[in-house]
Every structure is written in C-alpha cells, then in structure tokens.
Amino acid sequence: MSEIKIVNLRKQFGDFVAVEDSSFTVEDGEFLALLVPSGCGKTTTLRMIAGLELPTSGKIYLDGEDVTFNRASARDIAFVFQLFALYPHMNVRRNIGFPLLSQGIAKAEIRARVEETAKLLRIDHILDRSVSGLAGGDRQRVALGRAIVRRPKCFLMDEPLGTLDAEFREVMVHELRELHNRIHATTVYVTHDQHEAMAMADKIAVMNHGVIEQFGTPQEIYNRPASMYVADFIGSPPMNFMRFHSGLRRGMRSIVLDGHEVAVPEVGEDVAPGEMALGVRPEHIRFSDQAPIRGAVYGSEYLGTNQIVAVETAAGIVKARVSADRSFSLGETVGLEFNPAKLAVFDCASGRAIASSLYAGARHV
Amino acid sequence: MSSVKTTAHSVVEPTPTVKRIAGAIVILYALVTMIPLAWIFLTSIKSPPDSISYPPKIVFTPTLEGYCNLFTTRTRQTPDYIQALPAPSSTCDEITRGRNMVIAGPSNYWPRFGNSLLIAFGSTFLAVSLGTLAAYGFSRFRVPLADDLLFFILSTRMMPPIAVAIPIYLMYRQFGLSDTALGMILLYTAVNVSLAVWLLKGFIDEIPREYEEAAMIDGYTRLQAFWKVVLPQATTGIAATAIFCLIFAWNEYAFAVLLTSGSAQTAPPFIPTIIGEGGQDWPAVAAGTTIFLVPILVFTIVLRKQLLRGITFGAVRK
Asked: What is the pTM of this model?
C-alpha cells in the first residue's frame, strides 16, 4: 500500500484543457473521491495515474517514485472500469486470476488467492460461471476481485457504480467502504455522485472544468465550501445564495441583507465593495415570526422526516429544511432566522469564500 | 359476450404461419442452389457413356470409373496383352482393363490439389495475419493519413485484378516467381489483404478498448494484451474473413492459368485439362470437382459456429 502524489498535473487535448494544474496527495490507506460533474475530462486524471494517458506536464509519484512516464503494466496499480471490462472469453475464475498470471505465479497459488479473494467478495459460488451471464452486482464484484487479487499499491475506480440501479448502488456503496476498511488500500474513486463521495470517502477533491476547487474531508467540503461552485454542487437541495451589495472589513460580525442586519461569523479579511452572496444551508434556516427577513411560501416538498419549503424573499428563492410537523399553505408569510455560526459569505465575482471564523483552520485550495 | 376467438401473438415474434412460409422458402432456395452440386456429384459416379446420354439419366449404375480416371494415367492395349496380365490388383485396375486399357501411373491430380491447399491456406494465413495487425493499428493508434491509407487499400479492389495480369506476368517472369507456390501465395495475399483489413477493422473497432487497457493494468504489455484479449474476441471476425479469403484463393482461375503451368499449378487450371485425355471424360472432371469442393466445405463447417455465434460483448454493457 502506498501514497499517490500528484504535482502540477496538466492534460491538454488539442485546445481543450481536460485537467488544469492539479496537485494533491492521497495518503497511504486513504480513500479519495474525485468528485467531478459529468462531462469535463472526468476520468483523465485517473487514467494518467494509471498510465493509460500521458500528462502534458506535471509529475505523478507513487510511493515517492516518479512514475509519470512508466508503462501502465509497470505501475502496480489496479483499475476498476466504469463498464467493468471483464474479459468475455474467460470465466469468473480466470478473470480474477488474470493479473496474477502475468506475474508468473504458480498455478496452485493463483488458485488459492483467487478463491480467497472470491470469498472476501462473497462470489466464491460463481467462480466457474461465464461472466456474460452475471448480474450487474456480481460483475461489479468480479471487477473488484480482479483489482484486489494481486494486492496492488493502489486502486483507481472510474465510476464503478454508475451503471447499477439506484437500490443496488446503495448496497455496493456500503460494501465498497466495508472492503476499504478491511484492506486499507489507497483508493482514488472518480464519481459525479455527491452521495457516493460523501458516504465512502476520507477525502474529497471537487473538480470543476479541470481545476480542483476544493480538497478536504467530506465535513470540510460540506460545512466550509471554498467556493460558490462547491457550495452549490454539494448538498441537496444545495446551499442558498442571498445576494447583497457591500464591502467587508476584517472583524465585522454582521452584514446588511435587504435592509436588515444579519449576524455572520467574524470576517477575516478586507474586501472592496462589490456583489456578495450570503450562503445558507437549508437546514440552518428556522421559521420564526419575529425574524425581520420575510418571504412568501412558494412551494413545499414533503420528505417524511422533514420537508423542504421554498420561500420567495426579496433576495431570491430560499429553500429551508424544516420539521415535517407543520404544513404551510402557498403564499403564507414566514420569517427566516439563520444559524449565525454556520453562514458563509462569497464574493460573487470570483466565487470564492470570504475568510471568516467559519473557515478557521480549514485547508483552502 | 362475444365468442370471437383471438389468437395471442406478439408483434416481434413471427406467427407460426409466417415461420412455415419462411422455412419453405429457405428450403426451396437451398434445393435450387444444391442442384448443380448434386449434378456434379452424380456425374462423377456415372460411366462415360451415361454421362453424355440424352436425355440425362437419373437412374444409372454407379461406378468408380470417373475417380479411377482422375487419379491415373492409362495406356490402350490389345485384349491379348491384357488377357496375359496377372489378376487385377485393385478395383480401378479391373475397371480400366474393362475398357481395354492398363494403368500407366498416377495422374497429376493430387500434386495439383496439394498445390491448391498450400497456396490457398498459405495466402489466407498471411492475408488474415497482416490484415489483423493492420486493422488493429488503424483501429487503435493515431496513424498519420489513416483515412487516405485506408482508401488506398480499398482502391486496390476497385478494378478487376485481371486488369493488371500482364504487368504481373512480366514482373513475375523477371523475378523468377512464375510457376512457384511462393509467387501465387504472394499474389493472393496481396489481393486479399485489402478485404481483410477492411473487414477486420470493423470487427476490431467493435471491441471496446477497455479490455486492452484492463489487460495492460493487469501487468501485460500491449502486444500481450492484443494476443490474449483482443484476438480471442476477434475470432468471429477472423473466421469470417478467413473464409472469404480462402474461397477467393481456392477458386481463383485466371491468374492460376496465366502464372502456373507446371510444378506450382493449382487444381482449377488442372481440372479442365482432364477433358483432353482420351475423349471427353466428364465423370473424371466431375470427380475432380467433387473432391475439390471438399476442403472448402470442411473449413466452412468447422468455422460455422464462429460465423453464426455473432459478436457477443459479454461483460460490457453497450
């Protein structure tokens, strides 16, 4: 097991920049999710780490060794493909044993290790079946088995759950995390699904148009988003943005929104006047008749344990996650009260988060 | 309530009546196409007089005379000479003596047949091997001017090969390739390789790259990945291509007549020469043709499964 270090990695296809100067480190035994919205060079970073694609510039270190230009077969990395890529002309046993065969391992040992792996993944009963008849989940497990059987330095997974149906995906998310807890393999997992990333990863890197917007634990990403992009991408419904025009000074403890003073975490920098946005997570909003910021109920979405209520305010539509006990009628006027410790302020022009006590100690990218 | 009986039928599944009609058409077509083959076989077991009788005989006494004449050369002798010989050693001996002839020696049929086997299979193997490698290259790598090259390869099929017969004849004489098996193998390979590249490129394009990438990740070089992962999945395409190449090389007549006359002569130009030996010996010609059909028949039957299995992409969802 080992550490993956990416330094200023960049990949360009003609005029199109797929990955822009990315640097990050996946520590030994860590599970990193590369959270990338669909489209934009999603798997290019992963393919460069694997050696299936050569970077335009930058370096890749595996356990301190520069492997940037090493052949894929010389890197000792396992890759789980989105479409599994199980060899259709081999049965399950031969599929899993295939990576061992290339290392010239004795037949008896291959057999033993394949069986051990199959047991770990609970697919030992289908070892002699053809892969073409397998159900999606079993194919997934065979693909995982082929990856873990040779105990590689690290695993790369390219949206491995993307083709499974929603119900089964949830099961596999738990299985993958459980597997990771047992074998502690350094893992890089590409996905566009924030729930998968949040549920499985130790660290998340959020990418936008080839640029890493934020790198941190799921908690950091969720509670202290580094940019409006991250704040908007993570969470469902996403963070609300309420726009206001103002300058900020270090030490300020409140801002003025729509003519009303709103307490915020202590601002940590001076910002020239401009368009700003107050970021509020739906669950940090409470309805209160005394609150000065008011709006009309625009719609509601019942979720069982709670409900999402959309409120039309002077600063735009705000979605609040509130108790499901009370029902609201359309057009009803409500007052919005925010949890002052959890508010973030963004500079709309650049999209970045303004330094404040909320971000104290956070890694900013 | 109405008592109208409705038959359940699916839109996709043909009804039994449609199936029966389709089956009848296929069987009829098969029968029509098999009449010439049956006629050739029947002629091969007729006696020479039966073979040219008019109206044609459907009922006759089968004889091996055609095959005996095909495999041997014979000389005419006087009945007294034949009477004086010891008892006939084989069926053919007996049949031949019945026509006042004795067997002088083996004919050239088997050596010519052997040439055909060597040249057809040799050129098929070469064309398919080169075609597979070229198709893989065109399919997977950024080849400079790939489209132009592919068009050039295809353009070699845009005229009948016989149009270049004279230059090839002169070239072959110059290089000493006339009447050599090597020359014929090279010629048929050159004609077939364009077909092979185009057919196989289609098949290889259909094989997802992920398989090779997975194999390379699994510790294999690109060449090993090609050998262990791409080739096994291309077998259907390779088999189909091989059959097309083999049928062309096996049946080719014009170049064979032009370029081979002696030791490298293939069966197609040899079979007509049988006619000339002592009258129109149609049973012997038919016998030569019947045997000539066997290898291609066997090859097709052996590869039938590969051809019919179609392209299956077991583990990758499309």
From this structure: 0.77
| Residue A81 near chain B (CB below 8 Å) | yes
pLDDT value at residue B9: 55
**Domain final residue, candidates A169, A194, A223:** A223
**Of B208, B224, B312, which is closest to A85 when you measure between CB atoms?**
B208
Please tell me if residue A78 touches chain B, with a CB cutoff of 8 Å.
Answer: yes
Q: Is residue A229 part of a domain?
A: no
Domain contains A45: yes
- % of chain A exceeding 90 in pLDDT: 45
The CATH number of whichever domain residue A245 belongs to comes to 2.40.50.140
User: A139 and A55 in one domain?
Assistant: yes
What's the complex ipTM? Answer: 0.78
| Residues in A touching B221 (Cβ below 8 Å) | 71, 73
User: Residue B219 and residue A99: Cβ atoms within 8 Å?
Assistant: yes
Min Cα separation B230/chain A (Å): 9
What residues make up the domain containing A296? Answer: 238-359
Mean pLDDT of B77-97: 87
Whether A37 and A81 share a structural domain: yes
Residue B313 distance to chain A (closest CA, Å): 7
Our CA-based measurement puts residue B10 at a distance from the nearest CA of chain A, in whole angstroms, of 26
The CATH number assigned to the domain with range B110-309 reads 1.10.3720.10
Q: Enumerate the H helices of chain A as residue ranges.
A: 44-50, 92-101, 107-120, 136-148, 166-183, 194-200, 218-223, 228-233
Evaluate the omega torsion of the peptide bond into residue B144 and state whether it is cis, within 30 degrees of 0: no
Partner A contacted by B34 (CB < 8 A): no
Q: Which long-range contacts (CB under 8 A, 24 or more apart) does B36-45 make?
A: B37/B293, B40/B286, B40/B289, B40/B290, B40/B293, B41/B286, B41/B290, B43/B282, B43/B283, B43/B286, B44/B283, B44/B286, B44/B287, B44/B289, B44/B290, B45/B283
Total structural domains within chain A: 2
> Would you state the pLDDT for residue B53?
86
Quick one: A109 and A155 in the same domain?
A: yes
- Model confidence at B278, pLDDT cuts 50, 70, 90, reads low
The reported pLDDT for the residue numbered A120 is 85
Q: Is residue A20 part of a domain?
A: yes
CB pair distance less than 8 Å for A73 and B220? yes
